[in-house]
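Sample intake sheet
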Amino acid sequence: MSMWEGETAERLRAALLADDFRFACTDCGEGIASGNYHGVFARSFDRFGVDPAGWPQRLEFALTNTCNLQCAMCSGEFSSAIRAQREGLPPLISPYGPAFLDEIDPFLAHARQARFLGGEPFLSEINHRIWDRIARHGGTTECNVTTNGTVWNRHVDELLDAVPFSVGISIDGATAATVEAIRVGASHDVLMHNVDRFLAARAVRDLGQLHVPPDDRELARVLGLPSLRGRQRM
C-alpha cells in the first residue's frame, strides 16, 4: 500500500501537477518536449481516467522469469530456461508470497486492467493465483498477457471463461524452420494449434513478429500474397 500512498508516490504526484517530469517520468517528459505526443508512454493510461475512490486503474506485473523457451534474442533475466541451461546460473529467488497477494488484493478488486509480462506468464504460479483472485472479485478486470503461445492447459482454458483476457502472442516467423530457430524449444505445430485456441476464445490482441525480420517469402505468406514486389527494407 505504501507504493501507492507513501511519500515517494506523493512526491511524484506533486511533481506532475507542477509539470515537472524530472522526478521519475523523464521518458514521457522528453517525448512531450520533442512533440512526439503519439509516442508518449503516458498515453496508454489516458483511457482509464481517474478513479473517484483513488484506486489505480491499471496494474502491471513482471514477477518471474519462469519460461520454457530459450529464444535467440533473450537472456536469463527473462527466461529461467536460458538462465539455467545457457548461462549456467542458479534460479532467481522470488520475493512474492502469500503476504504479497494479500497486499495487492484490494487493488485487484478495483483495477480495470492488469498486464502480465516477463518469462512465460501462463507458466507462472503467482500469476495464476492473481488471476484466480481476479475471478473471485467478479472477473471484470481485463488481463493483458504477452505470451509465447506454447502453454495451454485446463487452467488456462478455465481462466479464459472466467476472466476477460487480451493476449499478444509472439511468433517471429511464418514457417516452422524460422519459428523453431528463433524460439528455441518451441514446436511450430503446437504453437499454431494454440493460436487457433486463443482465437476461438476471442482472446488474441496481437500476433507479433517483432525481433527478427522475416524474408520476403515469409512476409508474403503472412500477408496472404503470392509475392512481394518493389519492397524496400527499412
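Comment: Strands lie at 58-61, 70-71, 113-116, 142-147, 165-170, 183-184, 204-208. The CA atoms of residues 12 and 42 lie 14 Å apart.
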